[in-house]
Structures are given as structure tokens and as C-alpha cells.
């Protein structure tokens, strides 16, 4: 596959190197600096699509079976207050790759977004691609000798915004689309040109990941493995579905056998990649990260005890499972309860790799290294969300802030706020805004100041507002979310 990268980035970091020389320059830098790169950690980043906070056995699922992800958790740190930067996928993916909040990037909805032409508010003119001016993790790691691959879902823009223009040597499966037309071959994905009858896409992406690791075992590498699973369409292997169907009990919250089978395929992917690292004697110097891009989709799974799910402003929309294994550093089987968010991966991975120079003008995330080393807490008081859009999952335009145990949500349609104490009320059932007005006012000001600091785009009154024609909003309120868009 032809390798391309950004001219501006090359001018800044390579002093005039050409895009055509990119792949060679990476390999040459590895050879020239073999001694310095020998001890650098490899990175494998599993990004799961739409996996809910309780969709793993190690996160209290009583139905889904995830022995291999559980084993990973037993070898690393399990984060119980981990968040995606958005309630939908594209903004979270951009936040991981840049270390910047979606509000700063103006990538605030799934690409190309949900249309509500008659809603009360008009959404801003937001950005539907990851700009080439952004320095991605793959690009930031290049000067340190890393080779990077993106294998799976991209969903951050069509050409020329695909992975090979964003620092990745390889793009397998990534396009501007947010879901596969089919999980079985033929997938009808233009960046997957071949396959076998009956082949399952989660297995195929894993196989390509294994090939990449094998080929680059002598180089420091960054394998970004964003699975399409467990996003709709819900499709899985028939024999696995049947096994889960036989275990379903009517009164259980999680009972979708197809979804369970898709989770099992993801779990097997983790097992295969970990086995490959063991076979190549790379496990002791490979950091493994496991994360979801947003909360679980109601209808596919249940996020109980969290409120709501994907596409909502509540915990079910953006709290996700998260695990990090850093061999020789993280203490096996530990748990971290400190709030963290997806913008934190960028500075964390750069510090792990020994990249001292900040390649971005502004990074919103903070390094998680003190938490991983158990040497201290983070120097941060708040984390933020901004979603100036509508979603069938229940969201109307909002911003939110979490400070300690408190979370405040500001809704733009009527400017009301809701305040919750997540320590006492993880299900967000008791709105404290009226009983704690001073705390609500404090957090509301912090949220407004943050929006201003990042240049967040705000919705505006919609001149075409028509409550009669705005049917999707009414359907979402009644919980009729069977006919959801691609995201």
C-alpha cells in the first residue's frame, strides 16, 4: 500500500523529507538507532466499538464470557472510572489519536452525523474528518523509530484523511464508514481486497495484526487495532450464538446471544495477539491497552447499574471498561478508581516511549504514568464532555463536567442543569442541582470557562424548528430506538 504523510508534519519533523521517502525513513531511523530503540516498549491498542462498561466478566457481567480479557486485567490495571471523550465514536477516536478534546478539534459527532433539521437547536458547522495538521500518535512516535499500523475501523474521514496520511505505514480495513456492511466475507469494504467464504471480520483483523507483529518484531511498533465489533449489525458465528442462547434466562439484564458471541470473538482476538507476543518473546516489552469508544448501545446490551447508553449524556453513554498492562511497571491485578479519559492515552504513550518533545501545540490529556507506577495521583481536577448534537440514544445538545464525585450536565435546549454525586448515586437517579445550588453554579462556571478555552462550538436557535415534524426526538423520549442510524 502506498505510504503517504502530511507535508506540514514532514517539514516540521524531517526538515524537508518527502512523502515518498516516509516508509524508508522510518526503517532507516530504526536501524540507525537500534541501540536506543531496543528497550522502547511496543504498543498494542485494542479499541472496541460500542462495548458497555459492564460487558466484560471482570467488569461484573454475568452473561458474557471474556476469560482472556479477564486474564489481561489480571496482569495489569483495571480502571473503574474510565471515560470515552464522547458518547459516540468518531470524536473519541480523534481524542485518542491526538490527545485533544473533541470540542477543541470541532469533531463532535460521529461522521457524518445524525440529521435533525426541525429540532429546536441547529447544530454547529463541525469538522467531519481528522485534519492533516493534527499530529497523531503514529506521527509523534515516528521520530522515536516506531512503525505503526491501523487495522480495523477508522471513521475519521475519507481520502485524503485515511490512516496512511496520518502516520500509519499500514491501513487495513479503515475507511470513512462507521460499521461493516457484513461481518462475514464478502465484507464490501474497499480496503479489504480479499477473503475466504465464511471468514469472520474480527478473526481477519486479528490475523492481520498477527502478521504485522511478526513482520515488525525487530522494530518498536504501535499496533492500533480498532475492532468493528461489537457495533451493529449484530452478526456472529451460529454455533457460538446457539451456545449463548441456551444460557439465556428471561429475567437477566444482558441476554442478547448474538452480542455475546461477538464479545467472545473480541476476547479470542485478545488471546491470539497475546499468544503471538509470547511466541515472539515480545510480551515483556509490549504495553497492551484495552478500551471502548463509548458506552454500550441500549438494545444490544444493558449498562446497568449505569443510566442509559450510547448517545446519551449519562454514565452509560461514555463510561467504558479500560485495562492497561505495562510489563515490569504495572502491578498485576490492581484496580484504579481515579477518573481518566481517552485524551490521556496520547501523553501516556509518549512518556512510555520516551518521547520528550511535545509534538502538539496543546494537549488536553495528562499522562497516566503516575497511576500506572502507583507513585501519585493526577494533577487535574476536572474532565469534560461537549456534544452540541442530537442522537436517538437520548442526547439533546449538552456539555458536562466531572469534578471528583460530582458530575454536572448542562442542557442547551432549555439551559437547565442536572447535578449528580456519582459515588452515592452511580445510576444518576437523584438530581442535586436544586439542593446544592452553589455546587451547581460552581461547576457550571467551570464548564463555561472550559468551553471558551477550547473554542467549543455551540448550537444556535433553529429557524426551521417544528415540534410536529421533529418526530425522531419524540421517538427517542419514548425509548423507541430500534431504528438507529449507522452510529
Strand content: 15-25%
Helix content: 25-40%
According to CATH, the fold-level topology is Alkaline Phosphatase, subunit A
Sketch the topology as an H/E string, one letter per element: HHHEHEHHEHEEHEHHEHEEEHHEEEEHEH
> Can you identify the CATH superfamily?
Alkaline Phosphatase, subunit A
- C-alpha Rg, in Å? 22 Å
Shape: globular
Structure commentary:
The protein is α/β, with parallel strands linked by helices and 487 residues long. It has a single domain, classed as Alkaline Phosphatase, subunit A, CATH 3.40.720. 29% of the residues lie in helices and 15% in strands. It has 15 helices and 15 strands. Strands 1, 2, 4, 5, 6, 7, 8, 9 and 10 form a nine-stranded mixed sheet that branches. Strands 11-12-13-14 form a four-stranded antiparallel sheet, with helices on one face. A hairpin with a 5-residue loop joins strand 13 and strand 14. Helix 4 crosses helix 10, helix 8 runs parallel beside helix 10 and helix 9 packs across helix 10. The longest helix is centred in the middle third of the chain and has 23 residues. The protein is globular, with a radius of gyration of 22 Å. The two termini are 29 Å apart. The N terminus and C terminus are likely disordered.
Amino acid at each position: 500500500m502506498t505510504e503517504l504523510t502530511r507535508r506540514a508534519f514532514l517539514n516540521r519533523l524531517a526538515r524537508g523529507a518527502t512523502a515518498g521517502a516516509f516508509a524508508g525513513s522510518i526503517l532507516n531511523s530504526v536501524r540507525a538507532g537500534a541501540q536506543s530503540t531496543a528497550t522502547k516498549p511496543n504498543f498494542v491498542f485494542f479499541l472496541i466499538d460500542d462495548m458497555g462498561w459492564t460487558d466484560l466478566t471482570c467488569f461484573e457481567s454475568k452473561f458474557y464470557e471474556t476469560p482472556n480479557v479477564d486474564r489481561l486485567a489480571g496482569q495489569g490495571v483495571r480502571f473503574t472510572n474510565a471515560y470515552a471523550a464522547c458518547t459516540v465514536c468518531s470524536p473519541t477516536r480523534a481524542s485518542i489519536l491526538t490527545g485533544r478534546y473533541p470540542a477543541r478539534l470541532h469533531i463532535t459527532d460521529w461522521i457524518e452525523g445524525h440529521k435533525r433539521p426541525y429540532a429546536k437547536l441547529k447544530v454547529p458547522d463541525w469538522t467531519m474528518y481528522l485534519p492533516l495538521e493534527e499530529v497523531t500518535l503514529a506521527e509523534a512516535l515516528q521520530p522515536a523509530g516506531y512503525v505503526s499500523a491501523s487495522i480495523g475501523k477508522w471513521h475519521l474521514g475519507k481520502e485524503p484523511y485515511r490512516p496512511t496520511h496520518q502516520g500509519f505505514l499500514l491501513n487495513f480495513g479503515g475507511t470513512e464508514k462507521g460499521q461493516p456492511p457484513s461481518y462475514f466475507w464478502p465484507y464490501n469494504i474497499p480496503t479489504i481486497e480479499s477473503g475466504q467464504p465464511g471468514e469472520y471480520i474480527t478473526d481477519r483483523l486479528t490475523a492481520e495484526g498477527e502478521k504485522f507483529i511478526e513482520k515488525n518484531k525487530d522494530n518498536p511498533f504501535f499496533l492500533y487495532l480498532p475492532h468493528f465489533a461489537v457495533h451493529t449489525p449484530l452478526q456472529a458465528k451460529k454455533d457460538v450464538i446457539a451456545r449463548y442462547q441456551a444460557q439465556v434466562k428471561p429475567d437477566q439484564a444482558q441476554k442478547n446471544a448474538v452480542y455475546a458471541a461477538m464479545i467472545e470473538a473480541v476476547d479470542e482476538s485478545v488471546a491470539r495477539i497475546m499468544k503471538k507476543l509470547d511466541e515472539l518473546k515480545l510480551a515483556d516489552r509490549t504495553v497492551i491497552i484495552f478500551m471502548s469508544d463509548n458506552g454500550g448501545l441500549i438494545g444490544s446490551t444493558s449498562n446497568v447499574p449505569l443510566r442509559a447508553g450510547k448517545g446519551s449524556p449519562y454514565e452509560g453513554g461514555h463510561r467504558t471498561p479500560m485495562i492497561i498492562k505495562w510489563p515490569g511497571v504495572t502491578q498485576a491485578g490492581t484496580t484504579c478508581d481515579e477518573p481518566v479519559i481517552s485524551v490521556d492515552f496520547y501523553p501516556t504513550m509518549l512518556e512510555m516511549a520516551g518521547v520528550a518533545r511535545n509534538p502538539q501545540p496543546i494537549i488536553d490529556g495528562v499522562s497516566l504514568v503516575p497511576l500506572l507506577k502507583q507513585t501519585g495521583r493526577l494533577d487535574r481536577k476536572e474532565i469534560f464532555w461537549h456534544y452540541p448534537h442530537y442522537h436517538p440514544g437520548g442526547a439533546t445538545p449538552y456539555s458536562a463536567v466531572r469534578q471528583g464525585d460530582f458530575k454536572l450536565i448542562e442542557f442547551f435546549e432549555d439551559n437547565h442543569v442536572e447535578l449528580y454525586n456519582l459515588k452515592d448515586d452511580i445510576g444518576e437517579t437523584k438530581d442535586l442541582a436544586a439542593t446544592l445550588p452553589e455546587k451547581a453554579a460552581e461547576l457550571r462556571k467551570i464548564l463555561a470557562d472550559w468551553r471558551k478555552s477550547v473554542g467549543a462550538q455551540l448550537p444556535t436557535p433553529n429557524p426551521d424548528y417544528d415540534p410536529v415534524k421533529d418526530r425522531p426526538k419524540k421517538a427517542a423520549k419514548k425509548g423507541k430506538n430500534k431504528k438507529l442510524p449507522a452510529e
